[in-house]
Amino acid sequence: MQEFIAVIPARFASSRLPGKPLAEIAGEPMVAHVWRRARESSAARVVVATDDRRVAEALAPCGAEVLLTADDHPSGTDRLAEVAERLGLAEDAVLVNVQGDEPLIPPLLIDQVAARLFDDPDASIATLAEPISDVETLFNPNAVKVVRALSGRALYFSRAPIPWDRDAFARRPALLETDAWLRHIGLYAYRAGFLADYRDWPPSPLERLEQLEQLRALHHGHAIQVALARVPHPAGVDTEADLARVRELLQRSGGH
């Protein structure tokens, strides 16, 4: 695999879980667990990008590389654009955005999303998805759905249940009988040159409606490759209930 950098955006403020990067899990802050997972991938370098010195101080015992970034970035992608510029990366350098609230992220998926971008030199972004097998997830607006072309490139992302099964949904289905529905996994690989352009674009109308930053790239005609995840993707931490679940899992596994 060609060389890539893993970047972990760790925004301190969170409407649902304030101070989320520093939430304690198995004796360490959550962001430290994410950093260790990223270090187990093939990334040549792992950088934590945060807007708060408390995150940097919490990671000091790990020896993690931390970059203090602006506190007014509207999205993690915008934060990565600052990282790419500050590090002076070449336009074709590849960065993988590893969400700072995923302490269970499999390192294999970090490698997979980077490899997917290398496989399609004309794509600006690569990301992952997994099949949806239950109606609750399909109709949950917090579970983002994606539809892709035969080439694997994304056609559209939505919080709505796409594609819409006209006949079955009219009968209010209790189960799904096909594999037509995919849940988007928020793990991205980008080229540094694309990030420089992205930062200068205003949010697109569809992005504002759906509150999905990847729609800005589609709006401007950029290709997004979507691969099916090779291993299951554990859910991240958005709420106190999620945090309790992850704490229990890592406690049972000895913190690993």
Automatic annotation (TrEMBL):
Pathway: Nucleotide-sugar biosynthesis; CMP-3-deoxy-D-manno-octulosonate biosynthesis; CMP-3-deoxy-D-manno-octulosonate from 3-deoxy-D-manno-octulosonate and CTP: step 1/1. Keywords: Cytoplasm, Lipopolysaccharide biosynthesis, Nucleotidyltransferase, Transferase. Its EC number is 2.7.7.38. It is an enzyme of class 2 (transferase). It is found in: Cytoplasm. It catalyses: 3-deoxy-alpha-D-manno-oct-2-ulosonate + CTP = CMP-3-deoxy-beta-D-manno-octulosonate + diphosphate. InterPro entries: Cytidylyl_trans, KdsB, Nucleotide-diphossugar_trans. Pfam families: CTP_transf_3 (PF02348). GO terms for molecular function: 3-deoxy-manno-octulosonate cytidylyltransferase activity. Activates KDO (a required 8-carbon sugar) for incorporation into bacterial lipopolysaccharide in Gram-negative bacteria. Belongs to the KdsB family. HAMAP family: KdsB (MF_00057). This is 3-deoxy-manno-octulosonate cytidylyltransferase.
